[in-house]
Structure prediction request, 358 residues.
Amino acid sequence: MIKYTENASLRPYNTFGLNAKAALLVEYNKEEDLQQIFADPRVKGKPFLHVGQGSNLLFTQEEYPNIILHGAIKGIKPTSQTEEVILLECGAGESWDHLCEWCVEHGFYGIENLSGIPGEVGAAAVQNIGAYGVEIKDVIVAVSVYDVANGKHVIIGAADCQYGYRTSIFKTPEFKSRFIVTGVLLGLSRKAPFMLEYGNIKAALLERGFSLMQGADKRKSGRPMRGKQITLSAMRETILAIRAAKLPDPQVLGNAGSFFKNPIIGREQYEALLNQNPNIPMYDVDATHVKVPAGWLIEHAGCKERHVGDAAVHQHQCLVLVNRGHATAQDIVKLSQLIIDTVQERYGILLEPEVNFI
Ligand code: EPU
Prediction:
């Protein structure tokens, strides 16, 4: 199925809920469709943007003049498994959270901490989504793409995907209009351990009556365990509950998750900030760098109550900007610039949007 729609509403393709329009929307659901689409005179040689669910996009113009492509390639298929690992082939248009749920139901470990992230599998691999101590790159074995430059389907091994914090080869100027992700091959585990080393995961599990001992710790201690053993579904539910307490549901309140990246700064700069702000949190990056939560900087720079029209800072997590109802793209752009300027003035740190401005 290939569907061409002129002057199409992009409301279903941006979680901010903005009413932008695309000159041409092309929707398809098979890998083979891409050859036909790119041979079509309406598309051939023209600029395009391939989207997933638009959970990381901000359409800044009401009339987007180019082509928007969306693929609904579905399917979750185990291709090989041993006692320890399983390889799973997933269509790029599969819902990411549906995949997480499916893996939990089938006893496959590795992406339970990424439960509840909006969007689709293909976009997840482009963006290297991450949450609660796990990034999708940790389980990606290979990514299947359609190469627009020569009309061929290619498989790119994880090592060649140039994965970094919320980035990959698929976001670089050279490849972003050349490779269209059609599927992802994941390598998942058949057993624990779980990743518990992030924020309040441990506290949330303890509160729900789970023991934090797992694997080798459990065997070494030799003591009977106090509390229930963590299961895959318990882990997923705990993550979903932590998220629900902080992050707005885009179906209810338009948003695109974290609006900014957490800035990476030098340790010296961090030490200087720490002198002035003894509670400033950080995550280690390497020997010379740390990551500082942008949400903390935004809140402590006094931006929590800021809004421009209906574009506002989310009250439970300042890293997220929300559309309270009738925000325009320009309201969101203005609010983000206001935040960037305020944080820069207060802390000397330049925030960089994680959301893609289109
Ligand atoms: N914090 C504040 N005020 C705020 C928000 C956060 O003080 O308004 C503090 C928290 O108290 C905590 C620290 O900042 O000490 C970190 O907060 P949190 O654990 O909520 O995570 P984050 O760094 O704000 C990142 C990701 C999220 C991901 C969470 C959980 C980025 C840009 N964001 O947020 O990803 O869900 O960690 O792992 O890396 C997304 O990319 O869309 C996204 C939501």
About this structure: The radius of gyration is 21 Å. Residues 329-347 form the longest helix (19 residues).
